[in-house]
Amino acid sequence: MSEKKGKWRLTVRKDFAAAHQLRHYEGKCERMHGHNFMVEAQVEGDTLSQDTELLVDFKVLKNMLKEILGDMDHCHLNEHPAFAVHNPSSENIARHIYKGLEARLAGSGVDVKSVSVSEKPAQTATYFEE
């Protein structure tokens, strides 16, 4: 029987405010409206740093998320380059943030597990890759 290898999963949360319009929606959400989006990002790894014994410093992870959200905060998402082709839905926002974190963590031994975006507390879209 093989021995299990432990992993660590870290979670950070941050919110941002933005407006969007869902193209081709055929309902009220096709008109411009806004949300206070809540974002939750989870990363995972199996090796802690030798000096501090951290997977990744929470401060570093929060700053990465803050940087990605910074250019979406208080803007009209339909005008953001990431959503020129794709609808600025919660699903696509989650994917955009995931890809941004993935690029920033490349080569660190820490992988993005998932990114969730909520427009309201009762509804969440989660993006992850298998």
TrEMBL record:
<feature type="active site" description="Charge relay system">
    <location>
        <position position="74"/>
    </location>
</feature>
<feature type="binding site">
    <location>
        <position position="20"/>
    </location>
    <ligand>
        <name>Zn(2+)</name>
    </ligand>
</feature>
<feature type="active site" description="Charge relay system">
    <location>
        <position position="119"/>
    </location>
</feature>
<keyword id="KW-0862">Zinc</keyword>
<comment type="similarity">
    <text>Belongs to the PTPS family. QueD subfamily.</text>
</comment>
<dbReference type="InterPro" id="IPR007115">
    <property type="entry name" value="6-PTP_synth/QueD"/>
</dbReference>
<keyword id="KW-0671">Queuosine biosynthesis</keyword>
<feature type="binding site">
    <location>
        <position position="33"/>
    </location>
    <ligand>
        <name>Zn(2+)</name>
    </ligand>
</feature>
<protein>
    <recommendedName>
        <fullName>6-carboxy-5,6,7,8-tetrahydropterin synthase</fullName>
        <ecNumber>4.-.-.-</ecNumber>
    </recommendedName>
</protein>
<dbReference type="GO" id="GO:0046872">
    <property type="term" value="F:metal ion binding"/>
</dbReference>
<dbReference type="GO" id="GO:0070497">
    <property type="term" value="F:6-carboxytetrahydropterin synthase activity"/>
</dbReference>
<dbReference type="Pfam" id="PF01242">
    <property type="entry name" value="PTPS"/>
</dbReference>
<dbReference type="GO" id="GO:0008616">
    <property type="term" value="P:tRNA queuosine(34) biosynthetic process"/>
</dbReference>
<feature type="active site" description="Proton acceptor">
    <location>
        <position position="29"/>
    </location>
</feature>
<feature type="binding site">
    <location>
        <position position="35"/>
    </location>
    <ligand>
        <name>Zn(2+)</name>
    </ligand>
</feature>
<keyword id="KW-0479">Metal-binding</keyword>
<keyword id="KW-0456">Lyase</keyword>
<dbReference type="InterPro" id="IPR038418">
    <property type="entry name" value="6-PTP_synth/QueD_sf"/>
</dbReference>
<comment type="pathway">
    <text>Purine metabolism; 7-cyano-7-deazaguanine biosynthesis.</text>
</comment>
